[in-house]
Amino acid sequence: GQQLNQSPQSMFIQEGEDVSMNCTSSSIFNTWLWYKQDPGEGPVLLIALYKAGELTSNGRLTAQFGITRKDSFLNISASIPSDVGIYFCAGQGSTSYGKLTFGQGTILTVHP
Amino acid sequence: GAGVSQSPSNKVTEKGKDVELRCDPISGHTALYWYRQSLGQGLEFLIYFQGNSAPDKSGLPSDRFSAERTGGSVSTLTIQRTQQEDSAVYLCASSSEGPTQYFGPGTRLLVL
Lengths: 112, 112
Prior knowledge:
Structural class of chain B: mainly beta
Oligomer: heterodimer
Distance between the termini of chain A: 41 Å
Structural class of chain A: mainly beta
Order of helices and strands of chain A: EEEEEEEEEEE
Largest interface: A-B, 24 and 24 residues
Number of strands of chain A: 11
Mean pLDDT of chain B: 93
């Protein structure tokens, strides 16, 4: 089946620093999604990417759909304490309509 | 309601008992998904309903797990003869057109 490798597994940064995390897939995806999960909550959609090469921003967040269609990255600029949480990438392949494959998550800790 | 709702939010049960978890998707969403998230892990796909089509049950881990979706709206995930390894957060998501899924807050299941 499809495998997603998300890195890093965890990050400890100072408030104000920029953050970058990425996901790579063993197969081509048609859609990449980035979610954030706060403790005790379900994942919340941050950014959706539908086209290879697409670069999309949502406030301080920027994500890109890799041109090979096998990778995506998420950048957070000027981090703040409320950015703390677990970030997940998710992808949908051409043969798995409706089913998302999730990365293992990146745990982000921001020190004030 | 405005978002996906799930009940109960927490469930503690004894090994061997059956449990039912409920999901109310976003009104008008035709697709509904169930995922399982073990502690510190990513999301594991369980089952997917799309309109009136037969559900994709390929992620159900054993025949103790089953799900129904009545009237194209509310869904119930049933776990029979629960085991300790069933302890996890069970997340429900729904979507309209396209792959973007919106998650509920989850049900935290603890099997003693």
